[in-house]
Amino acid sequence: MSAPQADDLQKLVTMPMPFGKHQGTLLADLPGNYLNWFAREGFPKGELGRLLALMHEIDHNGLGELLRPLRRGARPLSPPRR
Prior knowledge:
The protein is an all-alpha fold and about 80 residues long. The protein is built from four helices and no strands. It has one domain. The protein starts with 7 loop residues before the first helix and ends in an 11-residue tail after the last helix.
């Protein structure tokens, strides 16, 4: 996994999943089994893959509480247009 960027944790609590079964769900709210599936099958390329890998590490290590303070006042980002 590449080094996290300064605003990656904020993006986890504001960026919705842009596709698939959990489209529209905030990355921070994706279920562990879905993150585990990506870990087995491969994360997408680019920023989304990097963020999903980071969320997988947070979830896998039981560190989800780290995101709680960031959720307060966070405004969800609009999903990217296709």
